[in-house]
Amino acid sequence: MSSIKSNLERVRNQISRTSKRFNRPADSVKLLAVSKTRPAADILEALDAGQRLFGESYLQEALDKIAKLTGSGAEWHFIGRIQSNKTRSIAENFDWVHSVVKLKHAKRLNDQRPGHLPPLNICLQIMIDNEATKAGMASGQAKELIEQIDELPHLKLRGLMSLPAATDNFEAQRIPFQKLRQLRDQLATTTTPLDILSMGMSSDLEAAIAEGASIVRVGTAIFGPRN
Ligand SMILES: *Cc1c(COP(=O)(O)O)cnc(C)c1O
Fold first, then answer.
1. Most exposed residue of 48, 85, 133, 188, measured as fewest CB within 10 angstroms of its CB?
2. What residue ranges in the chain does DSSP mark as E strands?
3. How confident is the model over 106-118, as a mean pLDDT?
4. Which listed CATH number (3.20.20.10, 2.60.40.10, 3.90.226.10, 1.10.10.60) goes with 3-223?
């Protein structure tokens, strides 16, 4: 068995074991395989092993891989920092964007989403505390942005994403994830339920699942360490 295939099996088992432990319904946590910096051949191996959702952070390399893997059935999620002059390629080539932090980007993605494609699924990236990067919007500004995005017909606002700084203590890992869930509970409405919590990576996915993650974004544990 290839190592990508056996890694995927291990991560899937970890997700289902953890879901059970925290009384999450079976299949309520989706696995997004973060394939940034990895060649298309690695993605093909993961596809062969039944993986469908892939996350990319760097636009140019992502576009090359998306082109190579046309017709493969992969669903593409953009999880990197958005630059205004690159929104068109994102709107044309991705199914999801997890990293929306400002209205200007949301409007451009909306205007540039091709009419023949379904609305682009998006999450707002929230700076919940002590972020690993300075990316993310202040949680206090989320309500207004949600109301503005609700008016954009080619976007579908699905939920919230966060990328807290790494820590190796399970209880400490839970804190920012719990805050993101509580923020979601405050902001959710019947028309915009924000059912997606995109949180948890290779080293903290169990804490994220404990706090209600619905998409975990896992790179290293599937594809091995990056350079
Ligand atoms: C790289 C990256 C991941 C995956 O991190 P791993 O530690 O390799 O699992 C998840 N989310 C985002 C936003 C990333 O940039």
1. 85
2. 30-34, 53-56, 75-78, 96-100, 120-127, 137-138, 155-161, 196-198, 215-218
3. 98
4. 3.20.20.10
- What residue ranges line ligand 1, CB within 6 angstroms? 34, 36, 57, 79, 163, 201-203, 217-221
Q: Which residue in this structure is represented by tokens 């879901």?
A: 19
> For the segment 170-213, what is each residue's pLDDT rounded down to a tens digit?
999 999 999 999 999 999 999 999 999 999 999 999 999 999 99
Q: Dump pLDDT digits (tens) for 4-56.
A: 999 999 999 999 999 999 999 989 999 999 999 999 999 999 999 999 999 99
Q: How far apart are CA 111 and CA 196, in angstroms?
A: 23
Show the tokens assigned to 30: 């989706």
Strands 75-78 vs 120-127: parallel, antiparallel or unpaired: unpaired
Pocket test for ligand 1, best of 14, 15, 32, 34 (most atoms within 8 A of CB): 34
In whole angstroms, what is the distance from residue 115 CA to residue 196 CA? 24
Least confident interval from 16-25, 133-142, 214-223: 133-142
